[in-house]
Design brief:
179 residues; alpha+beta
Protein backbone atom coordinates (compact mmCIF):
# COMPACT_ATOMS: atom_id res chain seq x y z
CA UNK A 1 0.00 0.00 0.00
CA UNK A 2 1.44 3.31 -1.00
CA UNK A 3 1.09 6.28 1.32
CA UNK A 4 0.87 9.79 0.17
CA UNK A 5 1.70 12.78 2.43
CA UNK A 6 3.79 13.20 5.54
CA UNK A 7 3.64 11.75 8.97
CA UNK A 8 3.08 14.03 11.95
CA UNK A 9 6.71 13.57 13.06
CA UNK A 10 8.03 14.62 9.65
CA UNK A 11 5.78 17.67 9.69
CA UNK A 12 6.92 18.70 13.20
CA UNK A 13 10.60 18.28 12.25
CA UNK A 14 10.12 20.38 9.09
CA UNK A 15 8.31 23.14 11.00
CA UNK A 16 11.02 23.15 13.71
CA UNK A 17 13.79 23.45 11.14
CA UNK A 18 11.91 26.22 9.35
CA UNK A 19 11.43 28.11 12.65
CA UNK A 20 15.17 27.78 13.43
CA UNK A 21 16.09 29.17 10.02
CA UNK A 22 13.73 32.13 10.49
CA UNK A 23 15.09 32.77 14.02
CA UNK A 24 18.72 32.70 12.84
CA UNK A 25 17.93 34.96 9.88
CA UNK A 26 16.17 37.43 12.21
CA UNK A 27 19.15 37.54 14.59
CA UNK A 28 21.59 38.05 11.71
CA UNK A 29 19.45 40.84 10.27
CA UNK A 30 19.03 42.54 13.68
CA UNK A 31 22.80 42.29 14.29
CA UNK A 32 23.54 43.82 10.90
CA UNK A 33 21.10 46.68 11.57
CA UNK A 34 22.61 47.31 15.01
CA UNK A 35 26.13 47.33 13.56
CA UNK A 36 25.09 49.72 10.81
CA UNK A 37 23.46 52.06 13.37
CA UNK A 38 26.62 52.07 15.53
CA UNK A 39 28.79 52.69 12.47
CA UNK A 40 26.58 55.61 11.40
CA UNK A 41 26.69 57.08 14.92
CA UNK A 42 30.48 56.78 15.02
CA UNK A 43 30.78 58.40 11.61
CA UNK A 44 28.57 61.31 12.68
CA UNK A 45 30.62 61.82 15.86
CA UNK A 46 33.85 61.77 13.84
CA UNK A 47 32.39 64.24 11.32
CA UNK A 48 31.39 66.61 14.14
CA UNK A 49 34.86 66.36 15.67
CA UNK A 50 36.71 66.95 12.40
CA UNK A 51 34.45 69.89 11.52
CA UNK A 52 34.93 71.36 15.00
CA UNK A 53 38.71 71.02 14.79
CA UNK A 54 38.69 72.57 11.30
CA UNK A 55 36.61 75.50 12.59
CA UNK A 56 38.98 75.99 15.55
CA UNK A 57 42.07 75.91 13.32
CA UNK A 58 40.48 78.44 10.96
CA UNK A 59 39.51 80.73 13.86
CA UNK A 60 43.03 80.62 15.33
CA UNK A 61 44.61 81.27 11.93
CA UNK A 62 42.68 84.55 11.64
CA UNK A 63 43.36 85.48 15.27
CA UNK A 64 43.78 89.17 15.91
CA UNK A 65 44.27 91.15 19.10
CA UNK A 66 43.31 94.73 19.57
CA UNK A 67 40.54 97.04 20.66
CA UNK A 68 36.99 95.88 21.35
CA UNK A 69 35.26 93.74 20.21
CA UNK A 70 38.35 91.64 19.42
CA UNK A 71 40.06 92.30 22.74
CA UNK A 72 43.33 90.81 23.92
CA UNK A 73 44.49 87.24 24.11
CA UNK A 74 43.67 85.38 27.30
CA UNK A 75 45.05 81.90 27.74
CA UNK A 76 45.06 79.66 30.79
CA UNK A 77 45.95 75.98 31.16
CA UNK A 78 42.27 75.05 30.82
CA UNK A 79 40.87 77.47 28.25
CA UNK A 80 41.56 80.28 25.86
CA UNK A 81 39.79 83.42 24.57
CA UNK A 82 40.77 85.61 21.63
CA UNK A 83 39.45 87.81 18.87
CA UNK A 84 39.10 86.54 15.33
CA UNK A 85 37.58 87.56 12.04
CA UNK A 86 34.85 85.08 11.05
CA UNK A 87 32.75 84.93 7.91
CA UNK A 88 29.12 85.91 8.41
CA UNK A 89 26.17 84.19 6.71
CA UNK A 90 26.03 87.17 4.33
CA UNK A 91 29.59 86.46 3.14
CA UNK A 92 31.62 89.27 4.70
CA UNK A 93 33.97 89.02 7.67
CA UNK A 94 33.20 90.46 11.09
CA UNK A 95 35.16 90.59 14.36
CA UNK A 96 34.11 87.99 16.92
CA UNK A 97 35.36 87.12 20.40
CA UNK A 98 35.92 83.36 20.69
CA UNK A 99 36.49 81.26 23.78
CA UNK A 100 37.44 77.60 23.92
CA UNK A 101 36.41 75.81 27.07
CA UNK A 102 35.36 72.50 28.51
CA UNK A 103 31.65 72.33 29.27
CA UNK A 104 30.76 69.08 31.00
CA UNK A 105 32.28 66.34 28.85
CA UNK A 106 32.46 68.48 25.70
CA UNK A 107 35.02 70.87 24.25
CA UNK A 108 33.07 73.91 23.06
CA UNK A 109 33.95 77.00 21.10
CA UNK A 110 31.74 79.90 22.16
CA UNK A 111 31.33 83.03 20.04
CA UNK A 112 30.46 86.46 21.41
CA UNK A 113 27.21 86.23 19.42
CA UNK A 114 26.11 83.36 21.68
CA UNK A 115 26.70 80.64 19.09
CA UNK A 116 28.32 77.50 20.49
CA UNK A 117 30.30 75.06 18.36
CA UNK A 118 31.00 71.52 19.51
CA UNK A 119 34.68 70.77 18.93
CA UNK A 120 35.04 67.41 20.72
CA UNK A 121 32.96 65.02 22.80
CA UNK A 122 33.81 62.68 25.71
CA UNK A 123 36.36 65.17 27.04
CA UNK A 124 37.63 64.59 30.56
CA UNK A 125 40.57 67.05 30.57
CA UNK A 126 41.42 70.15 28.50
CA UNK A 127 45.05 71.27 28.66
CA UNK A 128 46.44 74.29 26.72
CA UNK A 129 50.00 75.54 26.18
CA UNK A 130 51.26 78.61 24.32
CA UNK A 131 54.41 78.95 22.17
CA UNK A 132 56.49 82.07 22.78
CA UNK A 133 58.71 82.07 19.69
CA UNK A 134 60.02 79.93 16.87
CA UNK A 135 63.33 78.11 17.23
CA UNK A 136 65.07 75.09 18.66
CA UNK A 137 65.18 76.61 22.14
CA UNK A 138 61.62 77.91 22.10
CA UNK A 139 59.51 77.04 25.09
CA UNK A 140 55.84 76.53 25.76
CA UNK A 141 54.19 78.47 28.59
CA UNK A 142 51.09 77.55 30.58
CA UNK A 143 49.41 80.98 30.52
CA UNK A 144 49.32 83.98 28.18
CA UNK A 145 47.60 87.25 29.06
CA UNK A 146 48.14 90.21 26.78
CA UNK A 147 45.95 92.97 25.34
CA UNK A 148 48.37 93.55 22.42
CA UNK A 149 50.01 90.21 21.55
CA UNK A 150 49.22 86.54 21.05
CA UNK A 151 51.29 83.36 20.98
CA UNK A 152 52.46 82.07 17.63
CA UNK A 153 51.03 78.63 18.34
CA UNK A 154 48.52 77.01 20.64
CA UNK A 155 48.80 73.37 21.72
CA UNK A 156 45.50 71.89 22.84
CA UNK A 157 45.63 68.48 24.49
CA UNK A 158 42.26 66.84 24.97
CA UNK A 159 41.95 63.72 27.12
CA UNK A 160 38.98 61.74 25.88
CA UNK A 161 37.29 58.88 27.68
CA UNK A 162 36.10 55.75 25.86
CA UNK A 163 34.52 53.52 28.49
CA UNK A 164 37.38 52.43 30.75
CA UNK A 165 40.10 53.74 28.42
CA UNK A 166 41.47 57.23 27.92
CA UNK A 167 43.22 58.70 24.89
CA UNK A 168 44.95 62.05 24.48
CA UNK A 169 44.43 63.97 21.23
CA UNK A 170 46.75 66.88 20.51
CA UNK A 171 45.83 69.76 18.21
CA UNK A 172 48.56 72.19 17.19
CA UNK A 173 47.10 75.50 16.03
CA UNK A 174 49.40 78.05 14.41
CA UNK A 175 48.75 81.66 13.59
CA UNK A 176 48.98 82.96 10.06
CA UNK A 177 52.67 82.90 9.07
CA UNK A 178 52.37 86.31 7.34
CA UNK A 179 52.24 88.13 10.68
Amino acid sequence: MSRRGFTVIELVVALTLGALVVLIAHRLYAGALDGAARLLGGRRELDRQVNGERWLASAFTSLEVGPAPLGGFSGSPHGVAFGSWRQTPMGWFAPVRISLEQVGDSLVGALSSGTRILVAERVSVLDCDYLLAWGANASWVRTWQSPVSAPIALRVRVTRTYGEKEAVDTMLLMRDARE
